From TrEMBL, chains A, B:
GO terms for molecular function: carbonate dehydratase activity; zinc ion binding. Its cofactor is Zn(2+). Belongs to the beta-class carbonic anhydrase family. The keyword Metal-binding applies. Zn(2+) binds at C38, D40, H91, C94. It comes from the Bacteria. Keywords: Metal-binding, Zinc. It comes from Luminiphilus syltensis NOR5-1B. This is Carbonate dehydratase. PANTHER family: CARBON DISULFIDE HYDROLASE, CARBONIC ANHYDRASE.
Length: 193, 193
């Protein structure tokens, strides 16, 4: 068995042993809100936003982007499970600022193996084969972190399946300090009607 | 200010006060793996899988489905940030088992407000207006939890941008006990080539 799999299952056994009465929690989030944020390993939304099990939906993808899939999740969150306030939280030092869709397409066409990066940019060290399929995917990179939060909040608010009265708060998590820093233009864009 | 926003920011201040040396964590996940799971409020992947900040990517959407967006995130996770083992973790009592794309389309066409559910099924109590846009979205519901894990692991393994040598483990989180229960057919489908 893989060491990682072994470690995850061992940690899970400890969690189960101390599970308490969490088995009684209801499906709908008890605090009626949802968080959309990045998959980045340094982010622990439950810890940085004070969530206990059962409190809130957490949606995560590369960049914390308001992709169609994130909006699918948010609409389910409100329409079927009653959340009525949403957070969009990007973060400093995000990997999505370090490449472009063109770079990703080029790297994947060379090999599927993990590339390396240094001050000269990305370099593929894999042996291949690669695939040109990466050229048909929008990788949803961005250059300006605050602008990306504004764009994502605006896209959510403009969606025809999102009610006007759901406020959407735009924030950037600072990976150096753990702090949530407001993006005021995003929060303004995300105000309830 | 909303009570929820106030509470989240207060919890964040406590997190910042006790942040320690986590500001030095590197961008790539130190334990080189990624987890794809559901947005469900009862699931805390860091707790149930034993993750500290910096350890692993966590991708979450409604159902923990291997959507195009989840695959976008997984490919970035491996190609640029070096993860080389992935988990797909669905869970018992998932909301995605309680409706169909047709039901969701009907409900949203009546109103965008939160619907109610009882033994007679979903019922829209909103005042409208609704939108027929929901009929153009695949909501990615499922009826058989284990089968959905097998499907998602199989889709990931079959993707042209996913290297053969990445093992993908299929599990179901039991909301009553906190336990991760293997879906053996999924893990077999997810084995490294």
């Amino acid at each position: 068995m893989s060491q990682i799999l072994n470690d995850v299952l061992a940690a899970n056994q400890e969690y189960v042993a101390d599970f308490g009465d969490k088995g009684d929690l209801a499906l709908p989030p008890s605090r009626h809100f949802a968080v959309l944020t990045c998959m980045d390993a340094r982010l622990d939304p439950a810890k940085f936003a004070g969530l206990a099990e059962g409190d809130a939906h957490v949606i995560r993808n590369a960049g914390g982007r308001a992709s169609d899939d994130a909006i699918r999740s948010l609409v389910i969150s409100h329409k079927l499970l009653g959340t009525n306030e949403w957070f969009v939280i990007h973060h400093t030092d995000c990997g999505m600022e370090l490449f472009t869709s063109e770079i990703m397409g080029d790297l994947l066409s060379q090999s599927l193996d993990t590339a390396t990066v240094d001050e000269n940019g990305w370099r593929d060290v894999g042996e291949g084969p690669g695939s040109t399929e990466g050229r048909y995917i929008n990788w949803m990179t961005f250059k300006d972190n605050a602008a990306s939060v504004v764009e994502d909040v605006s896209r959510i608010k403009a969606h025809p399946l999102v009610p006007n009265d759901i406020p959407v708060y735009g924030y950037i998590y600072d990976c150096r300090t753990g702090a949530l820093v407001e993006v005021p233009e995003a929060t303004t864009a995300g105000k309830a009607a």
